[in-house]
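Please decode residue identities from the backbone states below.
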């Protein structure tokens, strides 16, 4: 796995993943750490996402090495899942005694392994630290807040995140502005994604379709909110073809709420199974318009300069609005439909610049700092 010889005094780093967004972010980090002579990186997969498309195919597309440990925790409520991860990871932590636990993002695996490491007095590094939606009804916001409170080293994607952390009392020497590893993965993968035939297979025409991803509880757990999403999909589908790689959770909720038939009957809408990473990037990079409630897609569309309508009242990534193509539209059908018409009314790609350090080299900067941590005097 690793190039070159490892020094005998190399530091063991546990790299924690559990969900699809984690896999995307960890791929460039594992490659960069693999080039460090003073680092031994072990990949710990909690199994929070465990089906083939959510997990296995992403490892293949992103050439992520096989996990050193697979915890196989599966699904459950937030409390159950977090507890299972903590219980399983504690055993691994006690056996291997890493010098650093590196967590990414804001999912339950991030929180659970941070809590476990903190109680074992093991240093923690958090990738994507400092992002804030300021909405504590979002489970991810709780995960972010607690993880950043526990972390010893906080790696940020933007200066907004630095400011949030300083405001919360984090000392500046613990904050490292390194850029965005999600963009590292995107830029590396674009040439490979361009070879995929996903657009042709779905009988779509490049830059003449909308891409939708909706899965957050606030949008799909209640009949009223899901109904608003359906009204939006019906209206957009009358403007141009819409492709919707449907998240298993969204599909399950449509059935549970009795809205599956109406979802399948939306005009112009093509529902497809969850896609592999490279297939999804193939679709994303040629979309005319994106509607999402995902955090990462807000970032990817900013780099790709594709209009993005975020169906949420807030975002932890305000830089994508200020310097990118993203617009917060909530879920009022009239507001979203009006925003879609305006976005589709322009024939030119939005004029925007990549945010600072979103240059494909964030993982290299992270690896250099982790190696400094490994060689620092105890």
């Amino acid at each position: 796995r690793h190039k070159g010889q490892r020094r005998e005094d190399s530091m063991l780093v546990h790299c924690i993943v559990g969900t699809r967004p984690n896999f995307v972010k960890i791929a460039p980090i594992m490659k960069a750490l693999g080039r460090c002579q003073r680092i031994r990186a072990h990949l710990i997969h909690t199994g929070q996402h465990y089906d083939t498309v959510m997990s296995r195919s992403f490892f293949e597309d992103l050439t992520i090495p096989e996990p050193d440990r697979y915890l196989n925790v599966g699904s459950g409520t937030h409390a159950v899942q977090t507890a299972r991860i903590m219980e399983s990871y504690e055993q691994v932590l006690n056996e291997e005694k890493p010098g650093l636990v590196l967590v990414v993002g804001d999912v339950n695996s991030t929180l659970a392994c941070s809590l476990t490491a903190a109680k074992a007095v093991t240093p923690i590094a958090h990738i994507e630290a400092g992002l804030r939606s300021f909405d504590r009804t979002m489970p991810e916001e709780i995960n972010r807040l607690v993880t950043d409170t526990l972390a010893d080293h906080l790696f940020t994607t933007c200066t907004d995140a630095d400011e949030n952390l300083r405001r919360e009392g984090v000392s500046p020497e613990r904050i490292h502005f390194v850029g965005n590893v999600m963009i590292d993965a995107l830029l590396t993968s674009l040439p490979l994604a361009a070879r995929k035939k996903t657009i042709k297979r779905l009988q779509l025409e490049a830059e003449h379709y909308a891409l939708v991803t909706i899965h957050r509880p606030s949008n799909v757990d209640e009949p009223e909110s899901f109904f608003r999403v359906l009204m939006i999909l019906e209206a957009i589908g009358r403007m141009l073809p819409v492709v919707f790689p449907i998240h298993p959770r969204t599909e399950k909720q449509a059935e549970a709420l009795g809205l599956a038939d109406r979802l399948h009957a939306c005009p112009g809408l093509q529902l497809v199974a969850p896609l592999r990473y490279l297939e999804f990037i193939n679709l994303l990079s040629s979309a005319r318009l994106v509607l999402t409630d995902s955090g990462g897609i807000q970032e990817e569309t900013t780099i790709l300069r594709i209009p993005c309508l975020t169906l949420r009242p807030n975002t932890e990534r305000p830089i994508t609005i200020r310097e990118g193509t993203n617009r917060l539209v909530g879920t009022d059908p009239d507001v979203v439909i009006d925003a879609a018409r305006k976005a589709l009314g322009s024939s030119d790609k939005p004029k925007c610049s990549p945010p600072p350090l979103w240059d494909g080299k964030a993982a290299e900067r992270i690896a250099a700092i982790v190696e400094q941590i490994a060689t620092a005097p105890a």
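Observation: The first helix runs from residue 20 to 34.
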